[in-house]
Write a structure and sequence with these properties.
With 212 residues, the protein is mostly helical. The chain is 72% helix and 0% strand. Helix 1 (3-27) packs across helix 2 (34-41) and helix 4 (54-80) crosses helix 6. The chain contains 10 helices and no strands.
């Protein structure tokens, strides 16, 4: 494929995903159709289907929403931090800087995802259902999962409350407990970020019962 054809394909793909994102947010998952996405993107139904069916498009769109939420939180932290100071390694996904005990700092890392899942609860419910049914890969289980698990490990070891040899396994448990709570909240239509964060804090406190 020539570079020009590849660029046209990339732009078409981006247009379809952007149209799907707009309609999913405005109309909801159930209220959005492939034909509607095609009309909004100015392409054929077949072109939309070449990018993905409705479920695949939602997974892609929600992953992009996750990335945007994390990036926005990081940008806010950068602007608020005095010039010349360095952000703690674990704070790049958190809604607040370091502070509190280990479970509190761990919960801070989950703030962008909690905000997203509660703000777009209908989309979150559809997203969770698609992932649970299998057959779809998502950022929540790939790059984001790796990054978040590593940040959990960093928080637990930076003040010595968890031994290095135990941290990786415990970070994995924290991650899957968090995903389980996200999916449970999505299934129940939870739209209260404070309530979900409190549930996450309770689970994290039981898993990471640090002496600090």
């Amino acid at each position: 494929m020539s570079n020009s054809r590849a660029e046209v394909k990339r732009l078409t793909h981006s247009r379809v995903v952007d149209a799907a994102a707009h309609l999913f947010v405005e109309e909801g998952f159930a209220g959005t159709s492939i034909r509607g996405i095609a009309q909004a993107a100015g392409v054929s139904v077949g072109t939309v289907m070449s990018v993905g069916d409705k479920s695949a498009l939602l997974v892609r769109v929600f992953d992009l929403l996750v990335e945007a939420e994390v990036a926005e939180r990081s940008a806010v932290l950068d602007q608020a931090r005095p010039a010349g100071t360095q952000r703690p390694a674990f704070a790049d996904i958190a809604g607040t800087d370091a502070g509190g005990n280990c479970p509190d700092r761990l919960v801070g890392l989950t703030a962008p995802l909690v905000a997203l899942f509660t703000r777009h609860d209908e989309l979150a419910r559809a997203y969770a259902s698609i992932l649970i049914s299998g057959g779809r890969e998502a950022g929540l289980f790939s790059d984001l999962a790796t990054g978040l698990t590593e940040r959990f490990r960093t928080v637990m070891t930076e003040r010595g409350c968890t031994a290095e040899e135990d941290a990786a396994a415990r970070a994995g448990v924290l991650y899957f407990a968090f995903v389980g709570l996200l999916f449970t909240a999505a299934a129940g239509g939870t739209s209260d970020p404070e309530a979900l964060s409190a549930d996450v804090r309770g689970a994290f406190g039981a898993i990471c019962a640090c002496p600090e």
